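Notes from hallway chat w/ T.B., transcribed later so I don't forget. T.B. wanted the structure written out for a chain they're using in a teaching module, and asked if we could keep both sequence and structure tokens in one place. Agreed to drop them here.
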Amino acid sequence: MAKVFIVGGAGKVGRRLTQQLSQRGHQALALYRNLEQTQELQALGATPVLGSLLDLDTEGLSRLMVGSDAVVFSAGAGGKGGMEMTKAIDGFGLELAVAAARKAGVPRFLLVSAFPETFRDKEVSETFENYMAIKKLADVHLVESDLDWVILRPGTLLDTPGTGKVRTGLAIPYGDVPRDDVAATLLEIIERPAVSRVIVELTQGDAPISDSIRQFEHA
């Protein structure tokens, strides 16, 4: 059984991951900041952990993480609060979580990032360009740490039911992917500790998730 600390536990991917972890016999600690979400998270099988990336410091967040086997960072401003909020959550928030994981002695860190080609076929705003720049810098920060990291870059996220079939690779064509399958892919990575220090791009596809992730295992 793994003990997994989810930063962004009340988010759409975080909730799905919590439920899937619980169903597989793992323990999910879900960091959240809205008390009204407590019962919902408990119903999904989470141990709710109240706290905000905007208020916690490294010491405080590390105390919450102590004893975890892995951290999953799936938090994001989601375009709310403008560029400064994106910087605070997706940028500084990630840096805070990395520092806290190191201080707490949590060895493994999974980051849900962004597909590089997101919306490149459309006219994008300055706000979105800022978002993509911050996501890339967050990737760089994690890669340069001494943690056992994995970065997952899903395509456009869908709320349609998952299929259990995906396409993954170091570099693949851009596409969509259901959030259910993003969570299932994270779960598969968590259960495969030999998948380490690799950036994985993810879209819908034809391969079962377990088979698709197996290719990234180091001997």
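Follow-up for T.B.: Residues 3-214 form a domain with the Rossmann fold fold (CATH 3.40.50.720). Might be a good example for the class.
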